[in-house]
């Protein structure tokens, strides 16, 4: 039996594979503070959102979380749960920003994604693993890193989006 696929299916698969590769490569980067990563796969999410819309971005992100966790061996672990919570809140906030047509640039969308991803992870960590009020003292530090990395990945996404847009208009 052969399952029919569409061009959209192929697009999602290619973009998800790229996001998974970045996600897996990023796990090899050392982290000075546990849980702090640049989130460079967010570049792909933002680009997909800008080019193809929220629905495609949601598919790419969900596949990145699931397949990425299978590749690195963290599926259904606390790391997977935290990643899924962060991605879920991030997608919800990106969806809200997209639906409200706030006109956010790649940098703005990336900041929204990074901050909400960190907040989603933090809230799940507090709820499931460390329900202690002292944990909230870490939140400003974590959100500061999320903001910095959101600006970084947003800048990368903006540069790539500009090149993609220019390339589209030249053909």
From TrEMBL:
- InterPro entries, sorted: Hpre_diP_synt_I (IPR014535), Hpre_diP_synth_I (IPR010898)
Q: Which UniProt keywords apply?
A: Membrane, Transmembrane, Transmembrane helix
Asked if tRNA-binding is a keyword of the record, the answer is: no
Signal peptide start-end: none
Pfam families per the record?
Hpre_diP_synt_I
The portions of this protein that span the membrane are: 12-33, 39-63, 75-98, 104-129, 141-161
Name of the protein in its database record: Heptaprenyl diphosphate synthase
Q: Which organism is it from?
A: Ectothiorhodosinus mongolicus
């Amino acid at each position: 039996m052969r399952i029919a696929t569409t061009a959209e299916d192929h697009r999602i698969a290619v973009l998800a594979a790229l996001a998974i590769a970045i996600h897996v490569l990023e796990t090899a980067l050392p982290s000075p503070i546990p849980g702090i990563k640049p989130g460079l796969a967010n570049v792909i999410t933002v680009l997909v959102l800008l080019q193809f819309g929220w629905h495609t971005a949601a598919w790419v992100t969900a596949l990145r979380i699931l397949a990425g966790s299978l590749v690195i061996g963290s599926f259904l672990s606390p790391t997977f749960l935290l990643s899924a919570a962060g991605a879920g809140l991030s997608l919800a906030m990106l969806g809200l920003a997209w639906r409200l047509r706030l006109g956010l640039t790649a940098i703005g969308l990336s900041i929204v994604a990074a901050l909400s991803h960190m907040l989603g992870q933090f809230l799940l960590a507090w709820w499931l693993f460390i329900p202690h009020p002292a944990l909230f003292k870490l939140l400003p530090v974590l959100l500061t890193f999320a903001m910095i990395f959101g600006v970084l990945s947003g800048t990368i996404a903006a540069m790539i989006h500009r090149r993609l847009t220019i390339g589209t208009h030249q053909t």
